[in-house]
Amino acid sequence: MSFVVKMNGAQNNGIHNNGTNGNFMNGNGVHHVSVRTHVSVNPAKLKSSRPRWTVRPSEMSKKTLNPIRAIVDGMKLTPNPEKPMIALSIGDPTVFGNLPTDDTVLQAMREAIDSHKYNGYAPSVGYQKSREAVANFYSCPEAPLEGKDVILASGCSQAIELAISVLCNPGDNILVPCPGFSLYKTLAVSMGIQVKHYNLLPEKSWEIDLQHLESLIDDKTACLIVNNPSNPCGSVFSKEHLHKILSVASRNCIPILADEIYGDMVFPGCDFQSLAPLSIDVPILSCGGLAKRWLVPGWRMGWILIHDRNDIFGSGIREGLVKLSQRILGPCTVVQGALESILNDTTPEFYQSTITFLKSNSEICFSELSTVPGLNPVMPSGAMYIMVGIEMEHFPEFQNDVEFTERLVTEQSVFCLPATAFEYPNFFRIVVTVPEEMMIEACIRIREFCARHYRPRSQDSHELDQ
Fold this sequence. Notes:
Number of helices: 15
CATH topology of the largest domain: Aspartate Aminotransferase, domain 2
Low-confidence stretches: 1-35, 460-466
CATH superfamily of the largest domain: Type I PLP-dependent aspartate aminotransferase-like (Major domain)
Largest sheet: 8 strands, mixed
Oligomer: single chain
Number of domains: 3
Strand order of the largest sheet: 6-13-12-11-10-7-8-9
CATH class of the largest domain: Alpha Beta
Mean pLDDT: 90
């Protein structure tokens, strides 16, 4: 083999032969080396040493799992071809077209577009004017807000992600309700944060089991998530119960992430009370948005309200939220441009109409299913959902709520979400935003399904004796 080596100290006074192995240097400083070798080089081996493509998914992506999708995608969903499908599983109030948003909301968007003022980038935390509009809408003497206390986000889901991200480090744990919105776990686990589930009590209209909640707290607990009104339960906590929750947080110095996306979507006779005005010392990040109350989930407008009257968060949490929001440069600017009008001009009649409809459908569903042997619905007080317990011992054909709801689709073309998706087996969740006639038909089909598969305990015992 021969190698050519360029030498820095090249001599230019001719060729100097050192007489060893034929090595010599020419006047241009190029050193020629001849090496005798008996090793033969395989071209294939040289080729195999080249780098290969090794593109792997990140650990974060591998840890990201949506429990609802994981369960639903694994279900065998083949509807009965003789019956039109009724989907009671999707938490989107716009699916069936029977709950349009208010005309003033649409007009605000038209004006924002026509103004040509909102086609560029906004500050990552949102336009100051839009932040001030949200602050003014939610501010009250007990929990005053200014524009600087509002972070706009791409939907309430991103607001929740920002709040978890700024409060927690890998190795920390957060306390989440069970049953509860599955996104909390999806986000936390992907970030290396442990999830601890505290129990809700169906026999007490889904109030928090406070003793269980407090038993889960340790020195790694970074955040308590309180979802009120609740998805999937449709429950609304009383002021007294909220005070007790705050006492637990205060005793243990745990900040609260309040998921209040369904705030004020409560039925007549029940009042919604936001957590922040009740807090004396517990700092709260309250997450909300336009999606549910204004019936525009696809517009992706959410927010975080920073309640920190005792300056416990300090500047660090606020600065952290600003930095985290810079990762996607904020929510849709057109919706931001319309936000002030949406908040201030939407008519009370629009809100009331939505609530009246949701209450009526909830009452229909509860009334119809309460008389079905083997089912135990829990009447909601707000939001868009009703949870129904299954007495699985009376349905021996099915091992769990997933199999129960799977067969309900196969036989009756009614799709309810198994509550295993919310870490709460032997229940299913019904979305009550469907048209009334569809809700009635769905309840009739559920009744038929249960009548076909229900087995009294006495019959089960008799069969076992045989």
